[in-house]
Automatic annotation (TrEMBL), chains A, B:
InterPro entries for the chain: Mal/L-sulf/L-lact_DH-like_ah, Mal/L-sulf/L-lact_DH-like_NADP, Mal/L-sulfo/L-lacto_DH-like_sf, Malate/L-lactate_DH-like
PANTHER family in alphabetical order: MALATE DEHYDROGENASE, OXIDOREDUCTASE-RELATED
Name of protein: Ldh family oxidoreductase
Similarity-based family: Belongs to the LDH2/MDH2 oxidoreductase family.
Keyword annotations: Oxidoreductase
Length: 361, 361
């Protein structure tokens, strides 16, 4: 079923306000979830609402706390999210470094004491709107098994990168491991086998049963102190021969730039004691290097050449962003896709908080 | 066979001086090659000398040209390598942004009109020596086939990242594609089959014959205007089910940050007309975010936990940098490993330029 963007936004604004967020914060949080649903990233859209609500009830997320800037240099900022939603602190940080990068050319931010921050691409989009190139990173709960290991330790650690191009920006936005946990859930829901080297058990044997994989991930990500067996593989799959240690390297780079640099929890430690995520954002001004219109034209020409390369008959070559921006156009027109479970949760939350739920079609 | 570090360095300094480089530039170039051989990255060590010499003879590399800074902001610098060796321009750029990052917290450099710059890790090591965290990127000749494509277009595009840790830094340094061309060459020399999903032909069929793979790469990388069939795969291998589009995404990010931002050639265009590579370097000051000793201790503790995770019996878990620093200790003591062909080339170049060749043992 679908609901209209405007109705989704209104509902979310009302819910977040009832949950104790300021009007301004509620608008922003609503925008991040609507944006994810519009771009077809349902795993990070309104279906997360019940989960956020649970963390607010448990006190993991503190809606009244204000994120604050702890320290600044001309090109750097350290932000304390103060245990409120990651989106609020990361927007504050990104807006701050956008200002800075317009003077110095480049700026970075690290956010500590944070929570889930939605899609990483939301912040690279903020940079693009300001005419800048952006990178955004986050650590997560532990889901990912390093090369040769039999237990999860690394986060699925998202990486987003946006660069100006036509008819839409280059937008790379996703987990650094082979697939996100959300993609495994989708297969489990549909009763489909996992089609690639996605997950392993505690003996590092490949798991193709999606429900079994989902159980493994749930244990890895949410059970404190228990023996963890298996998890998601790094990019490169199950075999060292396919360089899965490069996938591990990419994941470790993000662990260092988030949990370590923020002096917060690394992904492995977010299951016990204090639950905190950390984020890293970088923006720079492409206009320093050349005429922005020329850079955009050159990027577009390169991406078009990639799309038009000779290819396997019947297949298409997609460039990062193509899928999201195609879905964006459809979803803006027809409304965003919501599954039954998410709609049911919207109704329950609406009833409890006396917020009217949008019509679906 | 092995030759001692000091003898290798002296030989290279003499050769570069005879080839027309200044004494200072010769010392620096020698250091970059010795450093690669010491860290066990032979593909980027003295065995490249004959290749550099050929490019100097052809006029692709111009030893007397000076790299220069074109433009600066407090956090950014644009450098013109002026068609000299990439190492010279990138050291200039990296030293400049190290200075800047000590004031602003972070700085980036883009280098245009450049050539091969050796190992990307050399520049992140420079940053580490100055107490900073560094990232270095370069594009290359076209070797890599995007998802679903049947022809090479992307570079093998190196990515290096260094972060302070004990007993040695975290050092991720390698091609973003599944394996470097050099690794395929090593298998061809030894007459071994390729053990993983490394290369495909013009029908995107997996190639396991190393010599056939080497021919495919040579055609892709060095033949102008000819139909290109096949090449190296992106990280993720031959199948979309294993998310090889994420590997393509990583490669494209580097194309955008190097060739596009520098307004130079993208990897695909380095085979025709002007042959130029472009580089990107970023450094930031971790001391802004926290006590450097604490950050180093935390990074070390995390990496040690990764090394000690439960694992497949008989296998080890290596963290990026472990291999290189283990080889470094051995090679500093015993001398660097040189194969017969490289030693033969050293003798030929020595004879021609009247430079005495080090003894091997």
């Amino acid at each position: 079923m679908r609901i209209k963007e405007k109705a989704e936004r209104q509902y979310l604004q009302d819910v977040f306000t009832k949950l104790g967020f300021s009007a301004e914060d509620s608008d922003l949080l609503a925008d991040t979830l609507v944006d994810a649903d519009l771009r077809g990233i349902s795993s990070h859209g309104i279906q997360r609402l019940a989960w956020y609500r649970r963390m607010i009830k448990e006190g993991t997320i503190k809606p009244q706390n204000k994120a604050k800037i702890i320290r600044e240099l001309p090109g750097t900022v350290l932000v304390d999210a103060n245990q409120n939603m990651g989106q609020l602190a990361t927007v504050l940080a990104t807006n701050k470094i956008i200002e800075k990068a317009k003077r110095t050319g480049v700026a970075i931010a690290v956010i500590r004491n944070s929570n889930h921050f939605g899609t990483a691409g939301y912040y690279t989009c903020l940079a693009l709107k300001a005419g800048l190139v952006g990178i955004a990173l986050t650590n997560t709960r532990p889901l990912v098994v390093p090369t040769n290991a039999t237990q999860a330790f690394l986060g699925s650690n998202a990486f987003a990168f946006g660069f100006p191009a036509s008819p839409h920006p280059f937008m790379f936005d996703g987990a650094t491991c082979v697939v996100s946990g959300g993609k495994i859930q989708v297969h489990a829901k549909k009763g489909e086998k996992l089609p690639g080297e996605w997950a392993v058990d505690g003996q590092r044997q490949l798991v193709t049963d999606a429900e079994k994989a989902e159980d493994i991930l749930a244990t890895a990500a949410f059970t404190e102190g228990e023996q963890k067996g298996g998890g998601v593989l790094t990019l490169g799959g199950n075999s060292e021969a396919n360089s899965n240690y490069k996938g591990m390297g990419n994941s470790l780079v993000i662990e260092l730039l988030t949990g370590i640099l923020a002096q917060g929890s690394i992904s492995a430690d977010t299951v016990s004691g204090k639950h905190d995520f950390s984020q890293f954002v970088m923006v720079f001004d492409p206009a320093f290097f050349g005429d922005p219109e020329v850079l955009k034209k050159d990027a577009t020409a390169m991406l078009d050449r990639v799309r038009q390369l000779e290819h396997v008959p019947g297949k298409e070559i997609w460039v990062p962003g193509d899928r999201e921006y195609r879905l964006l156009a459809t979803n803006q027109e027809k409304g965003v896709l919501i599954d039954k479970k998410a709609y049911q949760e919207m109704k329950e939350i609406g009833d409890e908080l006396a917020v009217s739920v949008p019509q679906s079609n």
